[in-house]
Amino acid sequence: MHVTLSVNGTEHALDIDPRTTLLDALRDHLDLTGTKKGCDHGQCGACTILLDGKRINSCLTLAVMHEGDAITTVEGLSTPDALSPLQAAFVAHDGYQCGYCTPGQICSATGMLEEIAAGWPSHVTDDLEADPALTREEISERMSGNLCRCSAYPNIVDAIAEVGGAAK
Amino acid sequence: MNRQQTDIALAGGRMHQSLAHDSGRKHVSGRAEYIDDIAEPAGTLHAYLGLSAIAHGEIVSVDLDAVRAAPGVVGVLTAADIPGENDVSPPHKHDDPVFAEGRVEFLGQPVFAVIGETRDAARRASRLAKITYAPLAAALDVDAARRAGGTLVTEPLTLVRGDVDAGLSRAKNRVSGRMTIGGQDHFYLEGQIAFALPGEDEDVIVHSSTQHPSEVQLMVAHVLGISQHAVTVNVRRMGGGFGGKETQGNLFAAVAALAAKRFNRPVKIRPDRDDDMIATGKRHDFVVDYDVGYDDDGRIEAVDAVYAARCGFSADLSGPVTDRALFHADNAYFYPDVRVRSEPLKTNTVSNTAFRGFGGPQGMLAAERWIEDIAYALGRDPLEIRKANFYGQGDRNITPYHQTVEDNIIDRLVGELEASADYRARREAILAFNRTSPVLRKGIALTPVKFGISFTATWYNQAGALVHIYRDGSIHLSHGGTEMGQGLYTKVAQVLADAFGVGIDRIKIMGTTTGKVPNTSATAASSGSDLNGMAAADAARQIKARLEAHAARLYEVPADEILWVPNGIEAGGRFVPFTELVASAYLNRVQLSAAGFYKTPKIHWDRGSGRGRPFLYYAYGASVSEVTIDTLTGEYQVDRVDILHDVGRSLNPAIDLGQIEGGFIQGMGWLTTEELWWDEKGELRTHAPSTYKIPLASDVPPIFNVNLCDWSANREETIGRSKAVGEPPLMLAMSVVEALSMAVASVADYKVAPRLDTPVTPERVLMGVERMRAGG
């Protein structure tokens, strides 16, 4: 089946099995291997990418569903010389160990900060009407879909808090 | 918050500096290459395993015709296709087949592999096999294995000091009990994977996600029936290891290599997450039966304990794992008379393997259990009982394996943590809270860790490094250690940069390969930087000596007037940049390459007599955890954790703090939420993150004060006087179990020890509360 995917600003025409997940399309057909396959079940978050700026597990969606969508992977967040603020903060805070979950964490955090800015509440938000504050508790809750088996969580939260300008 | 922060340097090259992880920029930008990211050459095939459907039985027939006929299938491999030995047993016991032959011994055991043009084709075809079995009785856990006759997978160990029977009968007070300790799945985010490329003659290159490239090399050679020199194993980094890639990568590498040579095409194998969890080994579950004698002050007089482990169907590393459990049956406590025995039981489950701590955590968790028993029996704060039993300085310092504890800092460390965490006042406040709180109850506990550092297999305590300096002054570093996120590559590069006085950017850290450094040990036992750091330092020493001699000749100054300064040398007062020194050395035919070597001194171990000095030194730490439980539901949260941990003189404080925080959280997962559950047929039902819960960001305690013990320096001559950090912090999580126990005990006014088994899930907390209400 033909599909044209717009990934990191570049259009790619693909001829793929309609059952191909977006994750496999990125990794196996477009050689964008920054996005990782952890569980392939939508339960670990390693494959998180941004779809029109919203975070999504790319293993749980089919590539052919995304003709015309703006897909951003970790490779699209920076150039090798200029990291995004979140990427730089992860380096400065040692927000990883083995690094395998890191692209997913970075994409997820990028989308998450937008969700907070847009006023989306979370499970731990007290007041559903007010703008949510970027507390450690909010960050931890909102990032709980991205597993880090090395448990670099304290540093991941530090990095996100710094970029989000959180009160510590 | 009192969490130690450290400014992370992006450039530099000294030991003891908080230098950023060498792959940091690549990790955050998705450019760090894992094995599944390596560009596949044209013609790459994909292998998938066919797994057994029953836990124990004779294989009556295997019909793979439908597998072979499936679209996209290139071929099928079974035991009959193995030219060498059908065995990947790490201790070479011939009990760990690549493909089951004749019988299957656990549900999920590989029986065949299918090789396809795509991973999808191979995976679909693997489901088409028709295998019939004649089922046999399956023993799935310790109790069933004992009932079935107690077959052991390997030789058990007994450690004895003193006369335990006399000690027990002399003791005024006695307590006996049983503790059941659950296992743990590694859940490395990057699953097992191997990618093999065939070469000429018998050659094969295998990219393997392994902590032990030299063993993968040996295993592939055995399976293919070729010499080790024909096999090259490479690993640049792993997406997590935690012990799960110490031996468990062997089978995948062997299958990939076998298929690559058979079909003369590159072959990759990467199991699905569920199959990875079903078919690969985990941390050992233990059942510990104990009998302890103690006096009225809570001082232990004698300990008699049996540590029975579910080992699965084969030995794998169960011998050394159960040995290490016994080596930590004392944790930080002196036992005047002691006898501890291991019982490594064969079960019809996946073969248990290494996992961070390697039996040590289970050993010391049982010790904390009987400390708690004593405290509740005497109506005392468990911390008082712990202190009363700490190893002494100068006396009361002999372990059950007859090693003298020479570097004991536990009193000072625990004293400092007790003060900084405000343990006493908080305990009083919690006791007051519990007196008036009808539903929510709190608990607090301080537990120590003393962990022995060195491989107990003495010959493993060796390492090599290969250092080249090229004529442009750039440095190439190889060593036998592997990088799984623990920061080993960064630390060893710091050692080398420090030795030459250059920035780390001058050093290229090479992926680990058997072609550069041979006969390496697993990156395990927390030993990576101890061993490989010293080997790299040895290589640097050799090259520096040659450069000094060269400079002395060239600049006509005595060798002792050559000084190493940042980015060069001073020769008789004149500064010579490093690049200039190297360039002139090359022109003067000075060898700019060296192989470094290190073997750990002082250690020896006689397993037969149970005596020796298996450990060069000990790493210490302690933690205080505070929890709140809901006595109606069993749900709980960990409110605050304080940690003080000893890494000697830290090689890299940022990396060490990360290891401590991550180790604690991973240990907390093991002891609280991570429950492995097999059904009565022996099928693992917790084989994905949907049913197996590892800690999330939101599980980190909201107050998490982690500090390095800044006054500690290793009394042994380790690299930079540092101490190993990989495993010890995992055991800091024991204080969570003890704190939960106190909260549960409050229901019965602390009269009865709750004896919570692990993992302490909310269900177990609730059952504990119910037991307390029923009078214990």
Automatic annotation (TrEMBL), chain A:
InterPro entries: 2Fe-2S-bd, 2Fe-2S-bd_dom_sf, 2Fe-2S_ferredoxin-like_sf, 2Fe-2S_ferredoxin-type, 2Fe2S_fd_BS, Aldehyde_Oxdr_Iron-Sulfur, Beta-grasp_dom_sf. It comes from the Bacteria. SUPFAM superfamilies: 2Fe-2S ferredoxin-like, CO dehydrogenase ISP C-domain like. One of its GO terms (molecular function) is metal ion binding. The keyword ATP-binding does not apply. PROSITE patterns: 2FE2S_FER_1 (PS00197), 2FE2S_FER_2 (PS51085). The lineage of its organism: Bacteria, Pseudomonadati, Pseudomonadota, Alphaproteobacteria, Hyphomicrobiales. Residues 1-77 form the 2Fe-2S ferredoxin-type domain. Keywords: 2Fe-2S, Iron, Iron-sulfur, Metal-binding, Oxidoreductase. Transmembrane segments: none annotated. This is 2Fe-2S iron-sulfur cluster binding domain-containing protein.
From TrEMBL, chain B:
It comes from Arsenicitalea aurantiaca. It is an enzyme of class 1 (oxidoreductase). This is Xanthine dehydrogenase molybdopterin binding subunit. Belongs to the xanthine dehydrogenase family. Its EC number is 1.17.1.4. Keywords: 2Fe-2S, Iron, Iron-sulfur, Metal-binding, Molybdenum, Oxidoreductase. SUPFAM superfamilies: CO dehydrogenase molybdoprotein N-domain-like (SSF54665), Molybdenum cofactor-binding domain (SSF56003). InterPro entries: Ald_Oxase/Xan_DH_a/b, Ald_Oxase/Xan_DH_a/b_sf, Ald_Oxase/xanthine_DH-like, AldOxase/xan_DH_MoCoBD1, AldOxase/xan_DH_MoCoBD2, AldOxase/xan_DH_Mopterin-bd_sf, Xanthine_DH_Mopterin-bd_su. It holds the Pfam family MoCoBD_2. It comes from the Bacteria. Its cofactor is Mo-molybdopterin cytosine dinucleotide; [2Fe-2S] cluster; Mo-molybdopterin; FAD. One of its GO terms (molecular function) is 2 iron, 2 sulfur cluster binding. Residues 29-137 form the Aldehyde oxidase/xanthine dehydrogenase a/b hammerhead domain. PANTHER family: ALDEHYDE OXIDASE 1-RELATED, XANTHINE DEHYDROGENASE.
